[in-house]
User: Fold Circularly permuted type 2 ATP-grasp protein from Paradevosia tibetensis.
Amino acid sequence: MHPFDEMLAPEGGVRPPYAALQQWLDVQSPAKLSQKATDAEGVFRKTGITFAVYGDNQAAERLIPFDIIPRIITGREWRRLSQGIEQRVIALNAFLDDIYHRQEIVRAGRIPRELIAQNEAFLPEMMGFRPPGNVYTHIIGVDIVRTAENQFYVLEDNARTPSGVSYMLENRETMMQLFPELFQQVKVLPVETYPQFLRQSLAAVAPPGGNQSSPTIAVLTPGMYNSAYFEHAFLADQMGVELVEGRDLKVVDGRIAMRTTEGFRAIDVLYRRVDDAYLDPLTFRPDSTLGVPGIMDVYRAGNITIANAPGTGIADDKAIYSYMPEIVEFYTGRQAILENVPTWRCAEADSLKYVLEHLEELVVKEVHGSGGYGMLVGPAASKAEREAFAEKLKARPGNYIAQPTLALSTTPILTEAGLAPRHVDLRPFVLVSDRVRITPGGLTRVALKEGSLVVNSSQGGGTKDTWVLDD
Assistant:
């Protein structure tokens, strides 16, 4: 089955959303486009937009490749996507509240008890505690794919600490700098309001004990050696708030306070980019130097908001993901607007048997995996790789889920030979507090190698600007 080409219709010709872009491309010389692509790389290099690849000695800091041909989504398609995303994040938040309280969904037999109780991302320390504003997942990235039948599906949820929003913002700024005339011809919805909305969203869930009228917000980073450090610094700067490390913080008078030139100042909301295990050495890993000793006590006393709340990582679990249709229906009373990709849970004997018999056509993922690591892409793997993976599957079936190899939709990228189709996915960013705010578009990740389905930046993928038309 051929993938859905988002720009070109099967009978030839350009689909309507891309018509204005095509007219503009028709009058551009290949040399000029090539020069603009080089200019874009220069902008990214100058801004210092890099990410670290762990275990890669050659390139500790690498530039994520950026493609200058935008991906275009109609306003109508976006409205439908937004409804589905909003429904999903509301259900996710209700699910987290439920599993850390009465666990009604378990009692109703809709989700197996052991999937929660034995899940390494489940935090017993959160039982019976309700975060300020009753919000668990303040910032969510929902990965969406478009299939050969031109249907949108959710591939995974990122409710722990989704990254990539800085690339969405810098991609747009770079495009506006390079092609101002294009934005006059095509009406595109803005994304640059995200940092302002992020700040408003975080301020709206400040704890009752703090400064409600003008809460103090800070971004907690593991430090400059973290792969997403650029993003942490960028977002703190864009919001006009402090970027702090664990060593800058301590408990003062029952509050978390940060060191300033005038002494310690209490923080109301901490947007943390440090994983749960490293957040509080008194509660979790005693060897952690990245977190703040005692922060969980301050949190449970209601004196700070941590975004996202500890324990939200269970919503990223791919076995939990497989129950999302039930989760959405259980908490919203309606069927999911956005469907999941069909998923086999290897923990179930029948599913495991099917997966082992069809490894050459499936993608198998670790339930806690992220970034494209620890997975098998059946059609691209050798017989020996599949056999080795089958042994891992048999040894720990509950650790894996499997999905069909999707024919991800394509959009064109600029190559030396002109425009060529490449596979893409989309990560829209959602803010949840007093209301749900969804930035129009998101981060489009693109597989730069011909025929490749791997869009992860850590494995050779690139990004492009995502335009939602104002129609």
Notes: The chain has three domains: 16-192+317-339+423-468, 208-303, 344-404. Residues 67 and 464 are 5 Å apart (CA to CA). The longest helix spans residues 75-99.
